Amino acid sequence: MSHCKICTSPTNDIITFGGMPVANGFINVVGQDEFVFDLTVSFCTHCFMVQLKETVPPEKMFNDHYHFMSSTSQGMAVHFEGNAKEIIDRLAGRPDSFVVELGCNDGPMLKHIAAKGIRHLGVEPSGNVADLAQKNNVRVLKEFFNQKTAAQIVQKDGQADVICGSNVFCHIEDIHSVFTGISVLLKEDGYVYFEDPYLMDIVEQSSFDQIYDEHVFYYSGLSVRELAKRHQLELVDMVHQDVHGGSMRYYLKKGAGYTVHPRVEEFIAREKSLKLDQPAGYASFKDHVNQICHQLRHTLEEIKHKGSRIVGYGATSKSTTLLNYAKIGPALVDYISDNTPYKINKFTPGMHIPIRSYETFLEDQPAYTLLLAWNHRREILEKEKEYRRKGGKFITFFPAVTIE
Asked: What is the DSSP letter of 168?
């Protein structure tokens, strides 16, 4: 029996994907040793947290060879600029404000804060992306964030008016150390916000590729409220974000007694209506996942049987779970095109599909393209209008397999 990483209560397994490689573990040659762990998701009936049963050591995921760069998507660049504007507006009138971003990546948000001359600090453990952030004039501390790190920051810079993180809180297994650090670093009238893939979107769309080694926790309003209370913080607002296939931004304040926006209770009421506060709410998730995998593999096999070529679009972290669980390899997908320099000419974890440049895709103009970066669907379909006009078709798979 496993126990909750938040409250130590026994947990219930939701789905097991079996042995899975590290999502960003792209390899240089086929046959190279790959770290594999058991990818199982469980649910705590006490604090309502959905979480990975077994986790991967952080240094195997976040190191100087980390492959995810936030700035590679134009849509995400616009999103982060909007984040920065919200912070800048919120800080208007506050003298000598200080902003700390946890997991700043290559600096797509903080560079806008820096451009306004606002004191800031990005805390980023992956050295290669931290170096890129510094080239964007972002001040970076190359460390994992915890109570000790927070104390060091306070000693040097004072307390923060804003502490934020985008698609990072879900990555941290010892989340209590982060929240303890926040209580040290945050001013009494400061605020915290973080956004991560939203559990309700994952369940409703059966978007199981959101589940991989980096995503330890799958947050909902229910679980965030319980977690916040344990650290004398209050969940005061929730705002849905149309990124990463559906994310939620959670706003927290110190202590209690703050005005709580009606959206919090509205979202939590919706979560309860889907029974996300009890095991019954997850009972059909595994069946939906298996249906999608069966339908997708069958569709790809039919296309290949007819003699058409299929390539992938976007060597994403999340696609590792999809490709490995559905057993989709180079026999079905010739290669995956990507525009991240670190990934070109490598192979995907586990299934070993070659990764080629975006220019290769433009030259090939394959008949069918598996849209692995489906969370950027709108941006990609607009970008590839000419490909589609010439007859090229995209294959998507959530909440069902579709060819468009």
From this structure: -
- Are the C-beta atoms of 353 and 323 separated by less than 8 Å? yes
- How many other CB atoms are there within 10 angstroms of residue 302's CB atom? 10
Closest alpha carbon to 169 in 148, 192, 188, 147: 192
Residue 40's nearest CA partner among 54, 50, 28 is 54
Q: Which residues, in sequence order, are bridge partners of residue 121?
A: 100
Q: For 110-137, write each residue's pLDDT tens digit.
A: 999 999 999 999 999 888 888 888 999 9
Backbone angles phi, psi at 314, to 5 degrees: 95, 105
In which residue are the tokens 């086929």 written? 30
CA neighbor of 222 nearest in space, from 281, 158, 139? 281
Tell me the pLDDT tens digit for each residue of 70-91.
Answer: 555 678 889 999 999 999 999 9
CATH fit for domain 286-403, picks 2.40.50.140, 3.40.50.920, 3.40.50.720, 3.20.20.150: 3.40.50.720
CATH architecture for segment(s) 70-255: 3-Layer(aba) Sandwich (3.40)
